[in-house]
Design brief:
- The protein is built from six helices and nine strands; from the N terminus they run H-H-E-H-E-E-E-E-E-E-E-H-E-H-H.
- The protein is an alpha/beta fold.
- It has a domain of 138 residues.
- A five-stranded mixed beta barrel has the order 2-4-5-9-6.
- Strand 4 and strand 5 form a beta hairpin.
- Pfam families: SURF1 (PF02104).
Length: 282
Amino acid sequence: MTAGNRSLRFLLRPSWLALALVCIAFTYLCFTVLAPWQLGKNTRTSRENQQIADSVNTAPVALKTLIPHQDSSAEGSQWRKVTATGHYLPDVRVIARLRAVEGDQAFEVLAPFAVDDGPIVLVDRGYVRPEQGSHVPQIPPPPDQPVTITARLRDSEPTVQGKDPFTRDGYQQVFSISTEQVAQLTGVPLAGSYLQLVEDQPGGLGVIGVPRLDAGPFLSYGIQWILFGVLAPIALGYFAYSEVRARRREKELRSAGAAEVPAPVQPTTVEEKLADRYGRRR
């Protein structure tokens, strides 16, 4: 059997095959799951940071220019400041629970707002702190007369799986600000995006600020996963090559050692044969 065949048989052992499969699976995950996951988060964060920066430097526009009718949404204009004139709908009491504002637990108070000659939009009036036992405190109702509000556009949030809405303390409580879910819960049709009031607005409560502009570590994490995916098969190949070389070297050393052992001296004369037979030469 040639050295190449022996090396091939060694690499086809179950332990090396298992290691190769693990390496292939890890490399596949790096390029198809882990790196795209982190790079996608970096893209979303960068886009949101740009939207926040644009909203700070851009004057408010009329809400109806971005959400002209009931079935509209403005997913590409999140954080954009808008103005709207209309009135809050009475007797709709909804809060989003388990929210965090400035590092502390909070309820965010939601209310439908009917825009004059426009859609009905969900408005996040701001936050209140829960009372002891996570009870809802007394919340002042929004004004019942027509008002003009300024707010930031926000994208509807996905619903939280396994967390169904419920009623407590006289409020319908949800776990995310999903306009579709709130519409189904209240029976009020709502546009696809919602509004988050800025400071000093009619019906406003505790002001929820915009997030800080922070790109985060997602780009570097994505690059790291790509490097891991590249290095893993290289490392496997290097270890396989090193192991084959080491085994060949061991075989060469064993062969060289066997060749250096002298052959035993055979007796030639009768006396030497007799001595060897009866152990006199031992």
